[in-house]
Design a protein that fits this description.
Layout: H1 3-37, H2 43-56, H3 68-71, H4 74-83, H5 106-115, H6 119-142, H7 158-208
Amino acid sequence: MGPETVETASHAALAINIAAQLEPLAGAALAINVAYLGLVRFRYRDQIRDGARVELRIFEPSDKPAPANIKSMKMYKQLCELCALSNHDLVDVPHAIKDARINGGFWSQIYHYLYRKHNDRNITYFSSVAAGTTLIAGVARNIDIWGFMDYIYNPWSGPIWMYLLILFSVLPVAMVYGGRKIVFYALEHAREYREEIEKAMQTGSQLAQLPDASPNVVPMSVPNN
């Protein structure tokens, strides 16, 4: 057996070993991502919409529309946007507002770019495919088939795959945490919008009341007949 043959055999054996060593991590990443995909869809925006509708009903008792002066308020319109967050899917809620946003804050940006159009699920699909491919590749190389996988799983790419699989395992957990933070953040804003509307209504009613007495007003006497 020549030196080149020995080197090729050693390289192939190392590649098989790398793919096999990644199998447990790939299996864990695949399980976590599949579990994320199994969670109820639209769960975060459902919670936001339901919470915002509770706040909105204060101004719409008995399913009657809110007064025109309340409807013209910016806070009311923002509250309505939270009530009508779009699913951005084939099935949507009635009167959905496609461009609705929580506000302009940090968590609002996370929602807008990650959850609004389901990029969180797209990331999870990709992670599942990558982890599943690694898992299958380890089995395939252990039974000495799919030799082309040696170009993907080799001494140079092994550490990269390890860190990627760790990332794929952590991302779904981080996205669950982010989704819950966004729900809390959005419901806090819904409460703040409701309080601001109530304050504006109280201020308006106080300004509309006449003072009980004014020092500059002299009572008019009625002449006797």
